Amino acid sequence: MAKSVWTIDPSHSEIGFRVKHMMFTNVSGKFNDFHATVENDNDTFETSEISFSADVSSIDTNNVDRDNHLRSADFFDIDKFPKISFKSTAIKKINEGQFEVSGDLTIKDVTKKVTLDAEYSGLMKDPWGNTKTGVSLSGKINRKEFGLTWNASLETGGVLVGEDIKLVSEVQLIKQVDIH
Q1: pLDDT at position 122, please?
Q2: What is the mean pLDDT of the chain?
């Protein structure tokens, strides 16, 4: 059985999130510096072992002041916790091209089991002969469960930052090698 090793193509991938702001609009953000390795048997997605990390200092919400606040001890505390990581523990096929990816997500010093919905696009060769695949991932976490508890009350009631974070990622992987 051949074991395949894949890496993320950062120029064709985006690791993003959305959160409610003032309880009625979403603010989107992403991480600009991230890495992933995927190993699987015979290019079969459901046999994949996924390792992912993002450099929290690369957070980008299109607002410098907000990004700096997110890097501070109020939120991610990047001096103590510079990375977010995910390691898969199971992949379950739901339908053709539809999977659930379960694993351990670590933010700050907290690790929690999460399950993400994955849409797998299959294999394709690019014009330069590289074997690639695409995966869309989505899910939801509660930021407070990971120690991201800062908030501010609004004069009209409610809070400035929602608790639920929607994870939305588009990932393109490049096959690096087959190990026999």
Answers
A1: 87
A2: 89
Cβ proximity of 60 and 30 under 8 Å: yes
Helix (H, G, I), strand (E, B), or coil: what is residue 73? coil
Rounded to two decimals, the pTM is 0.89
CATH number of 3-179: 2.40.128.110
pLDDT band for position 19 (cuts 50, 70, 90)? confident
The residues spanned by each domain of the chain are: 3-179
What does DSSP say about strands 131-142 and 49-55: parallel, antiparallel, or unpaired?
unpaired
The DSSP result for 93-123, as a single string, is EEETTEEEEEEEEEETTEEEEEEEEEEEEEE
Q: 118 has which bridge partners?
A: 99, 137
Which pLDDT score, from 0 to 100, does residue 180 have? Answer: 56
What phi and psi, each to the nearest 5 degrees, are found at residue 145?
-65, -15
Tally DSSP H helices, then E strands, for the chain: 1, 11
For residue range 116-134, what is the model confidence (pLDDT) as tens digits?
999 999 899 999 999 999 9
Tokens of 117: 């919905």
